[in-house]
Amino acid sequence: MNTASVDRAPWVIRAADQPPALEIVLLRQTVILSWNQFVFAEGGDDEVRIAFASHDVVVKGAGLGPLLHAIAAHRVARIQESGRSEHFPGQAGRFICKIVVRKMEAE
After folding, report:
1. What share of the chain has pLDDT > 70, as a percent?
2. Alpha-carbon distance 3 to 35, whole Å?
3. Distance CA 10, CA 61 (A)
4. From 8-22, 37-51, 81-95, the region with the lowest mean pLDDT
5. What is the pLDDT of residue 8?
6. What is the pLDDT of residues 45-93, one digit of tens each?
7. Cβ neighbours of residue 28 under 8 Å, at least 6 residues apart?
């Protein structure tokens, strides 16, 4: 696996093949979602929303544009939320400060 950038982006991209799932590492838990359940993604440099059939994922940070493009290609194997000591106001580059994973409720 290769990281997305030389400045140590908080996500991992598979260069050769598509990973079977997206591993989301939160501060207190890890969630693994199958790419077979991927619905769509949208966003920009500061926020990316990833919709799966069973979960909705919102990633907040900076420099997330390349992450959005890698998600569209189903190349992201892992994203990781930063610990509190790892984010600073005015931090430059690519970083994830918060990831929210919500389970979709049946209506």
Report:
1. 82
2. 19
3. 10
4. 81-95
5. 60
6. 999 999 999 999 999 999 999 999 999 999 999 999 987 655 555 456 8
7. none
Task: Name the token pair of 13.
Answer: 């991209």
Pick from 39, 25, 19, 5: nearest CA to 101: 25
CA diameter of the chain = 44
Q: What angle do CA 2, 23, 84 make, to 5 degrees?
A: 90
**Residue keyed to tokens 């493009």:** 69
Residue 51, both tokens: 């919709």
Query: What average pLDDT does range 10-20 have in this prediction?
Result: 86
Q: Quote the domain boundaries for residue 74.
A: 2-103
CA atoms within 13 A of residue 24's CA, in its CB half-sphere: 20
Torsion of CA 105, 82, 62, 22, to 10 degrees: -50
In the numeric block, the tokens 């994830």 are attached to: 96
Number of domains in the chain: 1
Q: Which amino acid is at 40?
A: F
